[in-house]
Amino acid sequence: MPFKRALETAAKLGANAVEIDARNHIRPSEMSRTAVRHLKKKLDDLSLSISAITFQTRRGYGDPSDIQRRVDATKETLKMAYDLGCNVVVNQVGKISPEPDSDERNLMLATLADLGQTSQRVGAFLAARTGTEDGETLYQLIKALPAGSIVVDFDPGNLIINGFSAAEAAKKLSEFVYHVHARDGVQDLAQGRGVEVELGRGSADFPNLLGILEESQYRGFLTIQRDSAAQPIVEVGQAVEFLRNI
Predict the structure, then answer these.
(1) CB neighbours (10 Å) of residue 117?
(2) Cβ–Cβ under 8 Å, residues 233 and 10
(3) What is the pTM of this model?
(4) Phi, psi of 52, rounded to the nearest 5 degrees
(5) Contact 89, 55 (CB under 8 A)
(6) How big is the chain by its Cα radius of gyration, in Å?
(7) What is the pLDDT along the chain (246 residues), one digit of tens a residue?
(8) Of 80, 103, 126, 170, which alpha carbon lies 20 to 30 A from 218's?
């Protein structure tokens, strides 16, 4: 849908907030103060907040190709997020090298520490999306960084699709979770891979997962995402009701 119509549809479905894509919906370079005011007013008129800003880069923060441009663009997005009243920018950090002193890991640590300094200054944080590695691997990366450098976007569906335990990741990462993507998935044995399914029909035990997060005082949003829905409006509406009934 066109962006403004999509916002109106989300409000009609009963959502309290929306996630905005900073590559396709809006672009930080085009968000003047006037544009920020107009968007905030549109959201206020619809009684919507922003749950997160997503900023998906083609490469991770351990890949040296065009790294400075990627870092600068991320910093610009962090500032825009804060200006819009949001403190979370979601991206996958990239493949985390298992080698403790590899060039890729050292570059990732240095880059994320630098972004963390920007976050502390502007008031919005990079949230590493779960799923490309297990919870323990991401936990070890976070612990290797200065405190407060990055936070976590918990996506149980992405973890399940990639063959990892959502429950174990929740237990390990709950203290760092700033945002949750409400997605579900299963391992399709016939296809030999994980697939996304409707919320509540996969392997993600949301009552248990939300209970684990609640123990760490999580009070953030649950953002519904469905990438391959046959009837997206119907399914998102059902997902809203599913989460409200937990």
Answers:
(1) 13
(2) no
(3) 0.95
(4) -165, 160
(5) yes
(6) 18
(7) 899 999 999 999 999 999 999 998 999 999 999 999 999 999 999 999 999 999 999 999 999 999 999 999 999 999 999 999 999 999 999 999 989 899 999 999 999 999 999 999 999 999 999 999 999 999 999 999 999 999 999 999 999 999 999 999 999 999 999 999 999 999 988 877 899 999 999 999 999 999 999 999 999 999 999 988 889 999 999 999 999 998
(8) 80
Spatial separation of the C-alpha atoms in residues 8 and 231, rounded to whole Å: 17
Ordered structural domains, the chain, with CATH: 3-244 (3.20.20.150)
H or E element at residue 206: helix 206-215
Exposure class string for 131-169: b at 16+ Cβ within 10 A, else e: bbbbbeebbebbeebeeebbbbbbbbbbbbbbebebbeb
Place of tokens 């520490």: 113
β-partners of residue 49 are: 17
Task: Tell the residue number behind the tokens 């612990």, with chain if given.
Answer: 143
Dihedral pair phi/psi, residue 155, rounded to 5°: -125, 90
- Residue 51: strand, helix, or coil: strand
Q: Residue 124: which of 75, 58, 195 has the closest Cα?
A: 75
User: C-alpha 92: how far from its chain's center?
Assistant: 8
SS3 162: coil
User: Whole-angstrom Cα distance, residue 170 to residue 210?
Assistant: 9
Residue 242: its H or E element? helix 232-244
Contact between 83 and 119 under an 8 Å Cβ cutoff? The reply is no
